[in-house]
Amino acid sequence: MAMIHVNRGATNLGAFSEEEIREGLRTGRFAPTDIGWREGMATWQPLSQFSELAPGGPVAPPPQTGATSITVPSPATAGTTEPLAIWSFVLGVLSLICCGFILGIPAVICGHLALSKFQKEPQLQGKGLATAGLIIGYVAIAFWLIYVVFFGGASFLKSISHSGT
Q1: What pTM does this model have?
Q2: What is the sign, positive or negative, of the torsion defined by CA atoms of 155, 159, 161, 162?
Q3: pLDDT tens, 50-78?
Q4: Of the candidates 45, 46, 21, 20, which has an alpha carbon nearest to the alpha carbon of residue 33?
Q5: How many angstroms separate the CA atoms of 107 and 91, rounded?
Q6: Which of 6, 16, 78, 126 could anchor a disulfide with 20, C-beta 3.0 to 4.6 Å?
Q7: Tens digits of per-residue pLDDT, 79-92?
């Protein structure tokens, strides 16, 4: 018998047999909105959509424990791209074209902030964008520093040599 992996939000509840899940739905251990997956399935789906889990009667709702209601924030979905990663990449590319220091430094800052968020919330996407934004930001800063030192320095030396004659 194939095992079904069950998740509730971002929490992995484990792998269970069809009979264990059927019993859990009946007793309230599992909610019909909990998602399940087994080998051969393309995506996760709610347990209520598993035809083999449907009992002869309706599924009992989860037991209520008093009048208090606890609201649990929903986790970020797997398809969410971290906005700071996007900003890091955009600012990094723009810093190559113009305003190297002005846009390169925020690109690096956004990239580091995004990477720290990826460590806290691994389900977020866009790690490559953040890394690319960091690299491009650092390259742009270095490029513009070299440009200012060589061409700004050459211009300064030229102005000194002309003023002395």
Answers
A1: 0.48
A2: positive
A3: 877 765 544 445 555 554 444 544 444 44
A4: 46
A5: 5
A6: 16
A7: 688 899 999 999 99
